[in-house]
Amino acid sequence: MTRFDASAPAERRKLYVDAITAHRERASAFLTLEADDTAHDDSDDSDAQSSAELGVPWVQFGDGTINLDCSDVELEALKGLLEDFPAFKIDDLTRPDDAEGTNVRISAKADPNRIAQFIDDVFLEVYELPSSVRIWLVDV
């Protein structure tokens, strides 16, 4: 891979597909994508505050599984989003005692383009980031 970030919607999805391809070719354990740390709105909105407590939004993908952390409000948005992706299912919800939020593991048995679409929708709809958000590939 030669580029590791993108902010335009089409370029972000291409980044995700390229990252998934590189991950599979390298047989790495997983890949990690993060939103630019300036992208999350820290306004007085309680939903934004609750997810801000979890840190910079991120999504991992490996071995057909998407992994992410989310607040209770974001978890409800994620469940709604999954209605548009019937091939994607929540496999596991973990609420550690020593951490805020919920870790969610989703089976994603789909082609890289569909996975890319889902990941982008997670950043935009679940984490409520702007359509111009810059996403970084931080590990592959």
Descriptive overview:
It is a single chain. By secondary structure, the protein is α+β, with helices and mostly antiparallel strands. It has one domain (5-138). It has helices spanning 9-26, 46-52, 72-82, 112-126, and strands at residues 5-6, 31-35, 58-62, 65-70, 88-94, 102-108, 135-139. A 7-stranded antiparallel β-sheet has the order 1-7-2-3-4-6-5. The N and C termini lie close together (10 Å).
Task: Order the strands across the largest sheet as they lie in space.
Answer: 1-7-2-3-4-6-5
User: Averaging pLDDT over every residue, what do you get?
Assistant: 88
C-alpha-based Rg, rounded: 14 Å
Given the structure, what is the number of helices? 4
> What characterizes the major β-sheet?
7 strands, antiparallel
Helix/strand order, N-terminal first: EHEHEEHEEHE
* DSSP, total strands: 7
Q: Helix fraction? A: 25-40%
Quaternary: single chain
Query: Structural class per helix/strand content?
Result: alpha+beta
Strand content: 25-35%
What is the strand and helix layout of this fold?
Elements: E1 5-6, H1 9-26, E2 31-35, H2 46-52, E3 58-62, E4 65-70, H3 72-82, E5 88-94, E6 102-108, H4 112-126, E7 135-139
Antiparallel strand pairs: 1-7, 2-3, 2-7, 3-4, 4-6, 5-6
